[in-house]
Amino acid sequence: MEAERAWSYAMQLKQEANTEPRKRFHLMARLRKAAKHSERLEKLCESPRVDAKTKLEAQAYTAYLTGMVEFELQEWKLAMEAFNKCKTIYEKLASAFTEELAVLYRQRDQNAINDLMQMRLTGGGGGMMAEKLEALITQARTKQAATMSEVEWRGRSVPVKIDKARVFLLGLADNEAAIAQTANEETKEHLYETLLAECRDTIQAVREELKSEAKQRERSSDGDSGKVSNLQFLHSYLTYIKLCTLVKRNESMAHTLQAKLKEPEADEDKRGPAHKT
């Protein structure tokens, strides 16, 4: 309870620290306090009286809070290791217990993945660290993709059997959130281009499957040639996502250009009046 209370207050301070930098000191103090309480809890759970599930939950909780502290200190390597440990534990717990508990563990696993995404957005580490971080996120999405079976659009549920499409659709919300949270226009444009490239690759993968489907239809005579297949519908959905993303990207670029055009001509002001010779 003490750890949860300290963490909750720290998250409140984190929001306020955006406008009141002095509160960052209190934020770090509360986060460290939460991590210390969780470490004590983990020590208590080492008792032989405590079952294995509770021990693992305590370890995951400590890893998560430790990751939060290291993240705020911009100790990217330590933060990534802690979040990855937390993610791994929750993945194991999700696969070992009832579906009701598995939903809870998968949600906590997603929280750790979101923090890894935030690290990538912040630019944590650069170089090899950035590559490791990207690999972790891709690995997490690939594992999640195995549990994704269908997508719903315009009132129709369509099975998603292509792995590339599953991974892309699972990461879509995270990518869109990263774009929305980015204030830097150059970074935002890069994120848009990355998302569009992933979308184009996914559409191409679906097109390849559509070619195989068309050949199978030619060989069969089931009379369903006029019906929109699941693959065609999935292709339409992905094309819709691509077009929407293009429109948003163009709007963002237009707003940036408009803001630049409204800026005062600082160079002209600095030059001052021209001197005649």
From TrEMBL:
InterPro entries, alphabetized: SRP68, SRP68_N_sf
Q: What domain of life does the UniProt record list for this protein's source?
A: Eukaryota
Annotated region Disordered: the residues are: 258-277
List all Basic and acidic residues biased stretches: 260-277
- Which cellular component, as a GO term, is one annotated location? signal recognition particle, endoplasmic reticulum targeting
User: Which UniProt keywords are listed?
Assistant: Cytoplasm, Nucleus, Ribonucleoprotein, RNA-binding, Signal recognition particle
GO MF terms held by the record: 7S RNA binding; endoplasmic reticulum signal peptide binding; signal recognition particle binding
Q: Which Pfam families match?
A: SRP68
Listed GO biological process terms: SRP-dependent cotranslational protein targeting to membrane
User: Where located?
Assistant: Cytoplasm; Nucleus, Nucleolus
Q: Which family does it belong to?
A: Belongs to the SRP68 family.
Q: Which PANTHER family match?
A: SIGNAL RECOGNITION PARTICLE 68 KDA PROTEIN (PTHR12860), SIGNAL RECOGNITION PARTICLE SUBUNIT SRP68 (PTHR12860:SF0)
Q: Could you tell me what this protein is called?
A: Signal recognition particle subunit SRP68
Q: Which organism is it from?
A: Dissostichus mawsoni
